[in-house]
Amino acid sequence: MSPQDRIGRRGAMATGAALAGLLDGLLARPALAQPEAALLRAAEQEGEVVWYTTYIVNLAVRPLAAAFEKKYPKIRLRYVPAPPVEGVTRLLNENRNGSVQADVFDSGTVFVPAHAAGMVAPYKPRAAESFAADYKDPEGFWTGVNLQVATASVNTELVKPADIPVSYDDLLHPRWKGRMAWSDNHSSTGATGFIGNILLTRGPEQGMAYLRALAQQRVATVAAVQRVVLDQNIAGQYPLVLSIYNYHAQISMAEGAPIRWLKMEPVVSSFGTVSVLKQARHPNAARLFIEFLLSEEGQAVLRDANYLPIHPKVPPKVPALMPEAGGFATTIISPMLYAQHEQAWLKLFRDLFL
User: Fold this and answer.
1) Which DSSP letter does residue 171 get?
2) Of 204, 207, 277, 294, which has the highest C-beta tally within 10 A?
3) In the chain, what are the domain boundaries?
4) Does a cis peptide bond (omega within 30 degrees of 0) precede residue 239?
């Protein structure tokens, strides 16, 4: 065989090997994508998904719905605004009547009673494989969607820089008596979560001593959600408020409001969750929506709506809002941990602060 023939043969073999490799790659891709493709086909056959949501409609829900339907035009996303208390009542009533309408719902506050009623189906989203373990249920009944950091905030027109609290003990100063407020929202990021944080970090004896002293400061309880309490802080009704979401304060700060959120450590962190209902009429579309919500694409939509995404590859607009990037310690009170202590913490709230 001539040298030219040998070179030609080697070239043909190399070309053949390259083509074989390319063919193997092309054949392998559908196999890897098959679970997603099968889920998409099944979801498209169902044609719609019903989502009970606690997110702000104009801020997050509509952009998410638009992005989802653009990506999956054969599937209609129907959303029903359902704040936590209303969402729990609605789901439990529908369950009792055998007429569950939702396929998927968010909120850890809603998850706990829904799961206790046997309404939740397990599902482990592929999109959440890179999430930290704290944000995934080992059995797949819930997955975290967005982080919620509860802090205090001050009205910077009413509070001198030298008087701004830097620790929880600073809240006991006489200057704050009758000048603080918090929401009556019973959640891990509300007043009862504040109580839990003190007890978890200081222990029962020192924690109770602190809470009794704080009760003497006559903290006003506002019958409204945290955002309303923050708005009252901005308006000057209260110079200092407790247990508001720091990203809400950041939004208002960016709009020029005289507000500043505080890093009194450890702050309380929790997270929103998403779950599939066992009686979902569109279970595949529900799972597909969850995959989208937890994907980089869906998390970016939440980020653009000023929420704090959990996906490790999607940083928030303001990284300093997150404990690690912001350099502040946090106590993570998951919805499930909160449920274990809710009655005890709620009793303390009622006994000491109402």
Assistant:
1) G
2) 294
3) 40-141+279-311, 148-269+327-353
4) no
Task: Give domain 40-141+279-311's CATH architecture.
Answer: 3-Layer(aba) Sandwich (3.40)
How far apart are the C-alpha atoms of 296 and 301, rounded to whole Å? 9
Question: Rounded to 5 degrees, what angle do the CA atoms 225, 231, 233 make?
Answer: 110
* Cβ within 8 Å of residue 350, ≥6 positions away: none
Are the C-beta atoms of 43 and 285 separated by less than 8 Å? yes
**148-269+327-353, which class in CATH?**
alpha beta
CA 33 → CA 82, 126, 128, 185, 313, distances in Å? 34, 11, 16, 43, 21
Which residue has 């912001």 as its token pair?
Answer: 326
User: Sign (positive/negative) of CA torsion 321, 322, 323, 327?
Assistant: negative
Q: Give the closest residue to 126 by CA, choosing from 140, 111, 146.
A: 140
DSSP letter at 182 equals: E
Q: The pTM is what?
A: 0.82
Burial of 166 (0-12, 13-18, 19+ CB in 10 A): exposed
Which residues partner with 287 through β-bridges? none
Tell me how far apart the terminal alpha carbons of the chain are, to the nearest angstrom. Answer: 98
Residue 137 CB contacts under 8 Å (≥ 6 apart), including other chains = 122, 143
Report the distance separating Cα 272 and Cα 109, nearest Å.
8
Q: What is the pLDDT of residues 169-209, one digit of tens each?
A: 999 999 999 999 999 988 899 999 999 999 999 999 999 99
Nearest to 186 by CA among 223, 220, 212: 223
The pair of structure tokens assigned to 227 is 């955002």
Q: List, for residues 10-48, the tens digit of each pLDDT value.
A: 343 333 444 344 334 433 334 335 668 999 999 999 999
Distance CA 295, CA 284 (A): 16
Is 200:279 a contact under the CB 8 Å cutoff?
Answer: no
Q: Which residues of 189-226 are buried (b: 16+ CB within 10 A; e: fewer)?
A: bbbbbbbbbbbbbeeeeebbebbeebeebebbbbeebb
